[in-house]
């Protein structure tokens, strides 16, 4: 697959921005690949592999900052691992996959445009039982579509006021890392297609993620990049939902 220069630039921006908020970036990578004409069978594993590198980098930075909360994290991942594996083993119709992905992209679009920096004044106690159910649902969708699930988990944590932004980023990063590995293993058992340019994709995403995770753990104004990413996601969602 031959890529245009814009693909690598946007890949760097996607990895940078997602890592800065503790995400692996799979939804962004999938959006770019949809615009570049990747086949769905190639999109899912490629996004998960890129997720592994970027989310690991992001988690290390936020963990070092002391933001990770194990007691909140473990119920989510306990239920998510087997469901992500199961979802990764399921083959779905290309047309249905594109429609589902297009709908899913609306979540980060809303987050980046309307709720870029949610404020939480007082945290509430997390419910392990509720967390298990949420983790199972997100895990299944993650394996099925080829994402790590952080873009779905983060809004839930912030909406329920269980974690602040930094804690959310730390938990989401490790959730994405483990979830992506589980979903990728599930796909591997069924046979997967890896992009011929994977090495360069990983390098660009890793460098972008490294920069984003470092600056994101500090104070950094990401407003312009968030609007750029939201525009790319909207374009991809439109293409996927309309079949353009």
Question: Can you describe what's shown?
Answer:
- This protein is an all-alpha fold and 244 residues long.
- It has one domain.
- Helices cover 75% and strands 0% of the residues.
- It contains 11 helices and no strands.
- The chain has helices spanning 5-20, 26-36, 40-64, 70-89, 94-104, 106-114, 128-145, 150-159, 165-188, 198-216, 223-242.
- Helix 4 packs parallel to helix 7 (128-145).
- The longest helix has 25 residues, at 40-64.
- The two termini are 20 Å apart.
- The model has no long low-confidence stretch (mean pLDDT 82).
What labels would you give this structure?
globular; mainly alpha; 11 helices; 244 residues; 75% helix
Task: Give the terminus-to-terminus CA distance.
Answer: 20 Å
Number of strands: 0
The percent range for helix content is over 70%
Percentage of residues in DSSP E strands = under 5%
As for the number of domains, it is 1
Radius of gyration from CA coordinates:
16 Å
Largest sheet: none
Uncertain runs are: none
Number of helices: 11
Oligomeric state of shown chains: single chain
Structural class comes to mainly alpha
Estimate the global geometry from the Cα principal axes. Answer: globular
Order of helices and strands: HHHHHHHHHHH
Please tell me the overall pLDDT. Answer: 82
